[in-house]
Amino acid sequence: MIAVKPRYQQLKDLIIERISRGELLPSDRVPSENELVESEKVSRMTANRALRELNNEGYVERVAGRGTFVADYRSRSHLVEVHNIADEIERRGHTHSSQVVRQSRQRARGEVAKALHVEQGTEVFHLLLVHYENGTPIQIEDRHVLTSFAPDCLAQDFEAVTPSAYLTGVAPLQEAEQVVRASMPIAAVRQRLQIDASEPCLVIIRRTWSGGRPVTFARLHHPGSRYELTGHYTPPGTSRAASGDVVRLEKLSQ
Amino acid sequence: MIAVKPRYQQLKDLIIERISRGELLPSDRVPSENELVESEKVSRMTANRALRELNNEGYVERVAGRGTFVADYRSRSHLVEVHNIADEIERRGHTHSSQVVRQSRQRARGEVAKALHVEQGTEVFHLLLVHYENGTPIQIEDRHVLTSFAPDCLAQDFEAVTPSAYLTGVAPLQEAEQVVRASMPIAAVRQRLQIDASEPCLVIIRRTWSGGRPVTFARLHHPGSRYELTGHYTPPGTSRAASGDVVRLEKLSQ
DNA sequence: CTCATCAAGTTGTATATACAGGCTAGTACA
DNA sequence: TGTACTAGCCTGTATATACAACTTGATGAG
Lengths: 254, 254
Description:
2 copies of one chain form a homodimer. The first copy, chain A, is an alpha+beta fold. Chain A has 2 domains: 65 residues, Winged helix-like DNA-binding domain superfamily/Winged helix DNA-binding domain (Arc Repressor Mutant, subunit A, Orthogonal Bundle); 139 residues, Chorismate lyase (3-Layer(aba) Sandwich). Chain A has 8 helices and 10 strands. In chain A, the strands form 2 sheets. Chain A has a 6-stranded antiparallel sheet. In chain A, strand 2 and strand 3 form a beta hairpin. In chain A, helix 2 crosses helix 3. At the A-B interface, helix 1, strand 7, strand 8, strand 10 and helix 8 of A face helix 1, helix 3, strand 7, strand 8 and strand 10 of B. The structure holds a DNA duplex (30 and 30 nucleotides).
């Protein structure tokens, strides 16, 4: 695209860039329309359009009389929905805990190498955790992460901060792809989820991009009898105006 | 909400209303900005904002130099993603067929009445179909529809036109809610899907609204070994501008 | 000290105006 | 006949201006 972007788009890019770089953190104040008029030499209507669209897209929250503020990741349902399993459980009023089974450096092969777009044998981090809701196993998280993306991955305490929360902090998610399946688990999975041989698993296989390339690949196994995936959709035109709170895809986390 | 809506929102509502009523059909021309200036006594910028937002929300397509046109339902990935199973299968280059097992009037009770917000015992339509991909069963569609929503439901040939396609034609979808589960099916389901007792099902339970109230409630059973749900998400700020084609939730159909 | 009032800054909306650029149909010209 | 061009309509953007409504903090009266 050689054509110059319109001015309002340049303003949007400018602010998204500052947010992505962590220069502006959630709930920080974003330059007001009049400040943008001065600093960027645009008319107020142009600044208004930029901030208004960023608001519609979920990047910022605007309050008449107060100002414009960087939206909390949590409320950014347009960006990849960032619920980690811990939040999800706590929102239900239950207690979350997790146990790290494996946290190691490992050579990617087969499916993993392919999913992460790396050569067979490339070193990646491997995490294996079991998440519990009120002491009952609810998810096995089997995750591979690009070493270049999160170099300090081995030093993290993932029983204190979930991988999802950690990875979100390392860099903003930009794209996600997931597959949901129903399947019978192997014995090792059954044992960790404490389910019997007749119970299926809801399996989510998720790949997440940042900076244009896949950075993490996760397989999440859930006991079929204790977990379900819910989604709720409302089109922008209708209830956006009415309720103001649109949830696009619940429980899609990193 | 007693407060009057802003003028640009009134214009949007006006046009959405015309589309919903079928007065404006896909690819029909929508009044131009200047026509709205005259007929609605607004400034061009206000008309511009209304049409621009309708464009962003997927209701219309705009072409500089030509005009504004009602978008094809199919391309409205913002509204509830309207893939019916037949399209999905044909896109894979396979052939779709279906068999109607039951198509009747029935009294709603229990879960169905609750889901559709009607009294126990209210008459609703009940559809039970099996969908096949290349002759192999891929989905059992167990659907209940409000009689007031689709009065001619019993007269339809659902082996020719899928319920999803029919219902989309009757009125536009406005809201959808779904739950995805993995579970072991009962014998009747196993038999219809031609699977053995050790195979789980991916079950989608979906409720769809139109005009502010639930109009259809569907339970979709898929063989776990032959079906998976895929989703791909790209945030608006990033690839919207880049690719221009954002798919929000694949395979979510009515 | 407390409460009411007010000023300043902010967003939200609406209008008038202007120019650039895309598309189409009809016209003029060869 | 056919081609080039242009007038007219369309969207897309940008600016200047105006007023309303909301929020906060300061100021002043009681």
